[in-house]
Amino acid sequence: MEFLMPHFPPAQEESLISWLNRFGQFHCGLSLNAFLHFVGIPLQELHMGRQEVFSRASAISGQSVENLKTRSHEYLSDRRFAYRGETFFREFLLRSSVTFCPACLLSDYNESGTGAPKFIGRTEWVFRSVRTCEHHATALCRTAQVRGSELALNISAHAPDQERLEKLLKQAPLCKPSALQNYIIARFEGHKGPCWLDDQQIDLASRATEMLGACVEYGAQVPLTKLTEAEWDSAGQVGFEFTSKGEEGIREGLELLFKRPHKNAGQRGPQGVFGKLFQWVQFRNNDKPVGPIREILREFILDSFPIAAGTDLFGEIIPWRKKHSVASLSAHTGVHAKTVANALAQSGMLPKDLYVVNIRQTVPAGPAEELIEKLKRAVPVAKIPEYIGCTRSQASLLIENGILHTVIQDTGNRTARYKGVDLVDLHQLISRMRHFGKPVQVMSQGEV
Ligand SMILES: [Zn+2]
Fold it and tell me: From its phi and psi, is residue 446 left (phi > 0), alpha (psi between -120 and 50) or beta?
């Protein structure tokens, strides 16, 4: 095979696009677009990272395909790409934004000597969650989408002049890479990290971390589109504190959001409490998965809010209700909220002191519904003789001896309803007595 000689290897960390640009300049004095045309690599194919590009670039340069693949995203399908063994959705790549570290470019500039500047685009600048240069502890500069005939990732075509770079460097905030960025880079390098993150696609792990972090750091109703790159970076840092601890850590983060006070009654539902995090999972305009954070958030919501059976939560109908609030139980059973609250407090499902009952407090739906249904069927103690055919003193004895129980074990001076006995219990008592009893012609002595 004939290569263009002499060998012109990519610089350390240099992206395929950056290197091809310098390669064309070095060997043919051509711009990237002209060189690609000359060697028969369609620009769009390079932008996409198609397989043919790697083999063609390898054939003309003598660099191995494996080496070139560590310098570019690879096309898998219209939605999925790969890089160093990780696959992800295309949104994880910012192929149409110009991203650079002003300090890195200034150093390229200074090393170019008297000739034309030879800028080197670093491979990992293209990833959405990479926002800091680890060599210079400097925030990367990132533009919005650029259009035109030049690839945004061809940094030489877009690099500012020296004076502007110096100005940008002065303005760039000094910062360390976020914990999320460190995780992403380490994962690309093949290192193992927290399992909950490792067990999902890298872009989903990253997005879940940033979304949770943004809501914790800037409030659940944070206007996401207005967050700056620096704020997203902090979101990644904060979110990682939770997601790196897996399910337990994420529940901790959700608990933090849940416990924040909400003055507005309309904001006490899951959408109000989890804000953008909830909306991100609930309102999907594509079938791209959210990842395992969805299940954790769903469980948390079902455990903490009175969500009715039949509700559509994250695209799934809730088959049965897990929790009731006083209000939902009252609506469900048709019993006045105060009565419901009293009954729950007396039975120990809610704190005894009703004044401290938190409006958002919930109780397990099954036992709570059962309790209120019993209450609805309760026969006041005074009416028991009439129901089962006994005397008042016999009725009292049945209760005192624990053969019958009042619906709510109550020592306070409550209304007759609370002191009633479930009608079902009365029926059971009678059927038990009939089962064990024997019909007699004549009453034996001492019997009534
Ligand atoms: Zn740098």
Answer: left
347 Cα to the center of ligand 1, angstroms: 65
How far is the centre of ligand 1, averaged over its atoms, from the C-alpha of 103 (Å)?
A: 5
Residue type, 42: P
Domain boundaries, the chain: 1-177, 189-317, 323-376, 377-436
Any idea which residue has 């959001």 for tokens?
257
The Cα 104–Cα 100 span in angstroms is: 8
Q: Among 143, 132, 122, which residue's Cα sits nearest to residue 174?
A: 132
232 close to 209: Cβ distance less than 8 angstroms: no
* pLDDT tens profile 69-88: 999 999 999 899 999 999 99
| C-alpha closest to that of 92 among 230, 228, 201, 17 | 201
In the reported structure, the alpha carbon of residue 81 is separated from the centroid of ligand 1 by a whole-number distance in angstroms of 26
Whole-prediction pTM: 0.86
Distance CA 159, CA 146 (A): 13
Tell me the CA–centroid distance for residue 13 and ligand 1, in Å: 11
Q: Cis peptide before 117, with omega less than 30 degrees from 0?
A: no
Q: Are 119 and 168 in contact (CB under 8 A)?
A: no
